[in-house]
């Protein structure tokens, strides 16, 4: 099966049958061009890391986490599926392995001076705990936007916190400055050999923990690893590829934060202009230099997944072991599911790393809502029905006895009405297609909204319907850091210049807020408005042509 790169490891199980729409790194790197020198360099690189991993001091603070069987996933996907439970670490993520190993490797003078890191997330807690355990002062620079709960968590572990900058990049720059000024050791979240080696201990544990899982073939086929800056996958790949080069090491990234995927495609590190924040633990713009050097030789490929697939994976993990993974922590399972669906592989052993569980309780509502869509058990549709007595009933009859998850209907004109509909489906492509055919045959115009972010996050919750007349309206969605007063600040930046004609905001309990906004902007001012947007630090996207907006909220003329 040329091209897929996932075809030659099969022994007893069935081999992958289709070419994957994922980035395959094998065959593109210097190894496959195979000059002997390059091969030797690559081998030396692994050997160097093996030594560091075997020496790594992580078990003073970290536990050897279990490699749990996932019986429900295994049955559903017809493979022996295991989950490496890094969510069970004392700080609920793997990050303390690398942080501790780095800090423990410092000489007495550096230890006395102390360490510094920039992070609003799991790394911050890892560094704080490591510092506390070793009696080394740890200063963590966090962006001003960091939720209080995370600041307090670091302080509870003995870390000193300093809030600076509106973004991670600003906090990072300040931390580097301070490290120079105060002679502190900067503990990088991923791009440091000692950090990578600390994370590599996970690879070592996996290989010695694997147990027969009958009736499946118990030989490991692949390990699926969440990727942010690449420290975790670099460490795991370094160990696994030295000891068991036949095992595939596959990275998983959100499709809107895929810095390693892009780097492997380009053959060099790239800086992403914007990154999606849903999986905040892996929202990284550029892969590390050292992590990329390892990944380009020893990572077999990268799979990207969307928000709904991540949410569905959080639910799958919960169903199997009752743990609640954070979005980044569920990437391994999300990628593994996609891999099985796309390759058709069966009866093999697959391992996914559950890398963390630091999620705010408030976010779970959003996760639960989107998991339905991600599991392909809910279809979101916009359906046009005639506006006459009895037509609504007739429409419901066409749907039959299916479970309805959502039904929004509003009178629009004398001729027709728009229904926004959520329907349960069985998760098979045929059921989805049957329903769409059924509606088409009954004469309804149907638009599938299932993957439409605007529909999922905003339109389904909006009241008010269409604007009554032509408004000269443009519509944009925005993401901005969520903290008390953030919405007000956002409005202050946006609100003064143009009339806001539509607005929807819903707090998802996430670290960022999502706003849908319509503004009345005459054509003559649109360029000025676009220039204005370019100068903003918020992420934005134009939605004026999005069918969800045009069908349910746009001016009557649409
Ligand atoms: C839960 C979780 N998973 C995965 C990652 C990605 O790790 P790396 O940046 O080493 O690729 C992180 C990074 O902080 C994380 O917090």
Description:
This protein has four domains: 23-92 and 194-369, 3-Layer(aba) Sandwich (Rossmann fold), CATH 3.40.50.1100; 115-183, Rossmann fold (3-Layer(aba) Sandwich), CATH 3.40.50; 376-451, ACT domain (Alpha-Beta Plaits); 461-552, Biosynthetic Threonine Deaminase, Domain 3 (Biosynthetic Threonine Deaminase, domain 3). By secondary structure, it is of the alpha/beta class. A hairpin with a 4-residue loop joins strand 13 (404-411) and strand 14. Helix content is 40%, strand content 20%. The chain has a seven-stranded mixed beta sheet, sandwiched between helices. A four-stranded parallel beta sheet has the order 6-5-4-7, with helices on both faces. The chain has a four-stranded antiparallel beta sheet with strand order 13-14-12-15. Pyridoxal-5'-phosphate is lined by residues 93, 95, 121-123, 189-190, 226-232, 281-282, 326, 328-329, 355-356.
The largest pleated sheet is described as: 7 strands, mixed
Low-pLDDT runs: 1-21, 27-31
Q: What percentage of amino acids are in beta strands?
A: 15-25%
Shape: globular
Distance between the termini: 48 Å
CATH topology descriptor of the largest domain: Rossmann fold
Q: Count helical runs.
A: 21
* Architecture per CATH nomenclature, i.e. the level-2 architecture of the largest domain: 3-Layer(aba) Sandwich
């Amino acid at each position: 099966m040329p091209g897929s790169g996932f075809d030659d490891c099969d022994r007893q199980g069935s081999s992958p049958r289709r070419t994957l729409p994922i980035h395959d790194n094998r065959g593109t790197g210097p190894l496959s061009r195979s000059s002997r020198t390059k091969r030797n360099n690559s081998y030396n690189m692994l050997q160097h890391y093996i030594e560091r991993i075997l020496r790594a001091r992580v078990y003073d603070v970290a536990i050897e986490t279990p490699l749990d069987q996932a019986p429900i996933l295994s049955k559903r996907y017809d493979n022996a599926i295991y989950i490496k439970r890094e969510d069970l670490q004392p700080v609920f993520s793997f990050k303390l392995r690398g942080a501790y190993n780095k800090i423990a490797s410092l000489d007495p003078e550096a230890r006395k001076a102390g360490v510094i890191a920039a992070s609003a997330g799991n790394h911050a807690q890892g560094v704080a705990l490591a510092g506390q355990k070793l009696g080394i002062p740890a200063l963590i620079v966090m962006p001003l936007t960091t939720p209080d709960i995370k600041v307090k968590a670091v302080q509870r572990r003995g870390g000193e916190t300093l809030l600076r900058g509106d973004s991670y990049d600003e906090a990072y720059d300040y931390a580097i400055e301070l490290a120079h000024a105060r002679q502190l050791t900067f503990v990088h979240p991923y791009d440091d050999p000692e950090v990578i080696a600390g994370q590599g201990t996970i690879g070592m544990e996996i290989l010695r923990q694997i147990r027969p899982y009958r009736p499946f073939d118990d030989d490991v086929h692949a390990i699926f690893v969440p990727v942010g800056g690449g420290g975790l996958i670099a460490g795991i790949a370094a160990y696994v590829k030295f000891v068991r080069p036949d095992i595939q090491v596959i990275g998983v990234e959100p499709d809107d934060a895929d810095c390693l995927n892009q780097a492997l495609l380009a053959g060099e590190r790239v800086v992403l202009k914007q990154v999606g924040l849903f999986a905040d633990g892996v929202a990284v713009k550029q892969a590390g230099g050292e992590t990329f050097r390892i990944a380009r030789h020893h990572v077999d490929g990268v799979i990207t997944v969307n928000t709904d697939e991540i949410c569905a994976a959080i639910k799958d993990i919960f169903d199997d072991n009752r743990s609640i993974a954070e979005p980044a922590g569920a990437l391994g399972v999300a990628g593994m599911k996609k891999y099985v669906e796309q390759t058709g592989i069966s009866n093999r052993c697959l391992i996914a790393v559950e890398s963390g569980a630091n999620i705010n309780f408030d976010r779970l509502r959003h996760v639960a809502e989107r998991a339905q869509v991600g599991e392909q058990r809910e279809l979101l549709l916009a359906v046009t029905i005639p506006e006459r007595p009895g037509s609504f009933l007739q429409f419901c009859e066409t749907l039959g006895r299916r479970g309805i998850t959502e039904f929004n209907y509003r009178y629009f004109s004398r001729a027709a009405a728009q229904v926004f509909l959520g329907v349960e489906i069985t998760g098979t492509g045929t059921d989805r297609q049957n329903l769409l055919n059924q509606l088409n045959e009954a004469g309804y115009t149907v638009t599938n909204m299932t993957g439409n972010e605007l529909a999922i996050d905003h339109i389904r919750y909006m009241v008010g319907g269409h604007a009554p007349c032509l408004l000269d309206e443009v519509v944009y969605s925005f993401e901005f850091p969520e903290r008390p007063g953030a919405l007000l600040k956002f409005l202050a930046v946006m609100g003064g210049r143009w009339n806001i004609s539509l607005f929807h905001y819903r707090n998802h309990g996430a670290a960022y807020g999502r706003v849908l906004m319509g503004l009345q902007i005459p054509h003559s001012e649109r360029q000025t408005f676009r220039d204005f947007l370019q100068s903003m630090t918020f992420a934005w996207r134009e939605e004026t042509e999005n069918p969800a907006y045009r069908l349910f909220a746009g001016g009557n003329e649409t």
